[in-house]
Amino acid sequence: MGGHPEAPVLSGRVLAVLLSAMFMGQFDFFVVNVAAPSLRADLHASNGALQLIVGGYAFAYAAGLVSGGRLGDLYGYRRLFVAGMAGFALASLACSLARSPGQLVAARLAQGLTAAAMLPQVLALIAATVPAPFRPRAIAWYGVSGGLGSIAGQVLGGALITADVAGLGWRAIFLVNVPVGAVVAILAWRMLPTPQRRQRPGLDPLGAIGAAVTVGAVLVPLTIGRSEGWPAWTWVCMASVIPLGSLTWWWQRHLAGAGGTPLLDVSLLHTRTFRAGLAANAAFMCYFGSFMFTLTLLLQAGLGLDAFGAGLVFAPAGVTFSLGALGGRPLLARYGQRIVLAGSLLSAASLGSLALSLHAGGTHTALAWIVTPTALASLGNGIVLPSLIAATLVDIPPQRAGFAAGALSTVQQFASAIGVATVGALFFAAVRRSAGFGGYPVGMTWVAATDSALLILVAVLIQLSIRAAKTH
Question: Which carries the bigger pLDDT value, residue 6 or residue 364?
């Protein structure tokens, strides 16, 4: 696409088509949380099966992101986006038609893999086609679409299940993706740009297998370990991550030294902004994943809200996230990374307030004392997340945008799963010690305090990056 060199290459309509993938990917990541009771009743799914239905998507998604980014570099971002979106629609149709837990698990794995094909292309196209002065605005909208998708998974998912549209029950949450995905795939093929690639990188099947197996060795036991009582195989899998990761890393360095094109572009880790950005994104997503997961449990299992009522609690957070992401952009341009530091501290203080409210009120805590700090934390999240993404990719060359986007998304998903597993374990331990349903506010108090500490860590990492930028 041509145009004035100072004008953004992606128009508003094209950007909307592109960002719909981010919304859909995040929507399907969170929507199954509110559908779990319906899945248990309709499919007679066991606890382990439910964990795989929820976590299978996350595993396949995280395991395939780096490969999806590299395939975009190789075959073109538009082509991979369209193929991924079409595949995502078909996988969603398979989810809606599932008649057993096993069929739904297989379809969710397919959903995760197709999401891994389309989603890295979103950031890659932004990084490769939008001039630097306009990139923060595009990434702000990227953050809005992801945040709204996460929250819509709770709100719209709960509404669809409660409404029982055409008697479909939980199947409607997957079926809605089919017409939307088909339309977006057609529009994307017609509208998305095809940036020229300066080089044509080769495939690295051994690297792809090594990366997927390494990620799987962590995510699979973390996903189903708690519900299965942490059997020996889960610990063996997690212990195997060190040799598997080391072997994969050695192969990547060897292939690069031999003049090949490794899956993991290790040279990008020499870029200070990329390294610092990955660390800050990891800490943030560890908080975000664990908070969304445990707050849903508190609202439904602890306070007795139905799926729709629990979803409505997240609605104000969706509004404030959007305000933070869009309103934070001009503030960032004026005040720099200090506004991101302020956003992370706002979120940390809000979670501290939530912890105090739950500690004082227990199961009698008024919803207003949950909704308000959650919305304020989401305002801070909206300021922080798009800026973290932009800062991570700021020094990445356009021809490496696919890999960098895939690596960043992998770190985000990996950290989210770690947060759900580790902070979630703290939550369930507190619930057990505090006598069942009455213990859910106690568990959430510990989660809010822990996540507040993670956000302070994000603030420290941001402050360190500011100092490093001044001395660079």
Answer: 364
State how far the Cα of 351 lies from the Cα of 371, in Å rounded to an integer. 11
For 366-395, write each residue's pLDDT tens digit: 889 999 999 999 999 988 888 888 778 777
Count of all residues that appear for the chain in the document:
472
Residues 6 or more apart from 159 whose CB is under 8 A from it?
308, 311
Tracing tokens 């993938």 back to the chain, one arrives at 21
* CA 267 to each of CA 199, 328, 330, 364: distance values in angstroms, whole numbers, following the listed order: 16, 32, 32, 54
Q: How many alpha carbons lie under 13 Å from residue 141 in its C-beta half-sphere?
A: 19
Query: What pLDDT digit, counting tens, does each position of 21-66 carry?
Result: 999 988 988 788 778 778 888 888 776 777 778 777 877 887 888 7
* Sequence-ordered list of residues with C-beta below 8 angstroms from that of 196, at least 6 positions apart, any chain: none
Closest CA to 122 of 101, 139, 99, 100: 139
Q: In 240-367, which residue ranges form alpha helices assigned H by DSSP?
A: 241-257, 272-297, 307-335, 338-361
CB 200 within 8 A of CB 101: no
- Quote the tokens at residue 307: 């799926």
Q: Please give the Cα distance from 40 to 46 (Å, whole number).
A: 7
Lookup: tokens for 311: 């979803």
Residue 225 three-state SS: coil
Query: Distance between CA 270 and CA 277 in Å, rounded?
Result: 12
Domain extents in the chain: 11-192, 268-472
**Can you tell me the distance from the alpha carbon of 54 to that of 321, in angstroms, rounded to the nearest whole number?**
24
CA pair distance 68, 70, nearest whole angstrom? 5
- What CATH number should be reported for the domain whose range is 268-472? 1.20.1250.20
pLDDT band at 89 (very low <50, low <70, confident <90, very high): very high
CATH 1.20.1250.20: does it fit domain 11-192? yes
Nearest to 91 by CA among 44, 52, 130, 57: 57
The residue assigned the tokens 């870029």 is 271
* One-letter amino acid of 34: V
- Cα 61 to Cα 72: distance, rounded to the nearest angstrom: 15
User: In the numeric block, which tokens belong to residue 256?
Assistant: 């690069």
